[in-house]
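Human: I'm a chemist; would you kindly supply sequence and structure tokens for a protein?

Assistant:
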Amino acid sequence: MSDEIEIDLDDLQRRMEGALASLRTEFASLRTGRASASMLEPVMVEAYGQKTPINQVGTVNVPEPRMVTINVWDKSMVQAVEKAIRESGLGINPQLNGTIIMLPIPELNEERRRELSKVAAQYAEHARVAVRNVRRDGMDQLKKALNDGMSEDDNKIWHDEVQSLTDKAIGAIDAALENKQEEIMQV
């Protein structure tokens, strides 16, 4: 490979891994019938005049497999946290016990499992698109390098490297989707 003209494969790989990390975060927010503190990460509470994540207004615990509890630190924030959870679209009905909000996780029915599986597939497709966009950026860099004097042979080697990174990232996304769908459909 040419020493003068190089493509930053580490940057491309880092960006592709970022798409996969983002996908895993989105998957964590999908409810699978098991309690998880991460399912509350996307929920924002109107606190002190601004939107705040739940974990910054209280302690989130998972005391048992089908229960999440939130111990709200400021008693005046309990109603705001409860409202944020009700309006989040998680499909969970909060129960108040003083400053502790209990979230019993209901069993998922077959129809809801199929819906969640489709949502997971959409998340995976967004991640694939992000990886393909990174690949396109890499290929654009290769075209520019070819115009700047990179040899055809070197360009082909770099092209294969970028494609290999893309295939690996897409494979990881597909594997993560398969695992998540399996977890969702598990009764």
